[in-house]
Amino acid sequence: MTQSIDDRIAALDWQALQAALDENGFVVTPALLTPQECRALIALYGEPAPFRSRVIMQHHAYGSGEYQYFRYDLPAPVQQLRQALYPRLAPLAGAWAQRLGEEATYPPSLKSYLARCHAAGQKRPTPLLLKYGAGDFNCLHQDLYGEHVFPLQAAFLLSDAQRDFSGGEFMLVEQRPRQQLRGEVVPLQQGQAVIFAVNHRPVKGSRGFYRAKLRHGVSRVRSGSRHTLGIIFHDAM
Q1: Which residues pair with 89 in a beta bridge?
Q2: Does the structure show a pLDDT above 80 at 1?
Q3: Does the predicted model carry a pTM greater than 0.85?
Q4: Quick check: 155 and 85 in contact, CB under 8 A?
Q5: Is there a contact between 92 and 26 (Cβ–Cβ < 8 Å)?
Q6: Under CATH, what is the fold of the domain 5-231?
Q7: What angle do CA 105, 111, 52 make, to 5 degrees?
Q8: Which of 92, 154, 202, 230 has its CA 20 to 30 A from that of 110?
Q9: 85-138 pLDDT, tens per residue?
């Protein structure tokens, strides 16, 4: 993979990816990061300088494991992924808001969207690295950090699922009104991303569109070590 991250993202079939996102609430991309890039991001976890805070999941009943939020300025690959993905997802975000009768709009550039977040006091960066060991897991949750919530986010698997760990599947659970919960286990390979709904998405019913609420998490890691990069587009209070 010799292309830049921007070029790799631009080369994707975004019409097909957006259609799958619209249909299912999530989609898996081809590998967008090389093994070398994945290992370099994993290596950042032990360095204090790139991060603003560290969370031990057990201390907050979030699960078991830990994660760290990056500080600004973001590492170059993280910034490139965030900046290149946002304008490809903003049109679908706007379409979802319109179908649900929401007033939210999403400008075409990440810079403009973050200016809106920062004006509302949401100034802390939200991209993060997550680290799981044997026995660790992440409870089902949503990444909501303030008034402004971009409705899509991405999670990149940095570890090698064949070599580095077992278990630790990415999970999505969708709740539709007056229906049982629907679960999805989403297999990922190193360097791939799953793009998914942060909170809710529109689903067409007999009387128009209604909200389906999604939560995501990670099942228990049976062995080894699993690292993930999370790309969230709205910043936090």
Answers
A1: none
A2: no
A3: yes
A4: no
A5: no
A6: Jelly Rolls (2.60.120)
A7: 110
A8: 202
A9: 999 999 999 999 999 999 999 999 999 999 999 999 999 999 999 999 999 999
Per-residue pLDDT of 201-211, as tens digits, reads: 999 988 899 99
Tokens of 112: 């403009």
Least Cα distance to 229 among 179, 193, 198, 197 occurs for 193
* Buried/exposed 61-100: b ≥16 CB within 10 Å, e otherwise: ebbbbbbbbbeeebbebbbbbbbbbbbbbbebbbebbebb
Tell the residue number behind the tokens 């370099």, with chain if given. Answer: 40
Say how far apart CA 8 and CA 19 lie, in whole Å: 19
Each domain of the chain, given as residue ranges in start order, spans 5-231
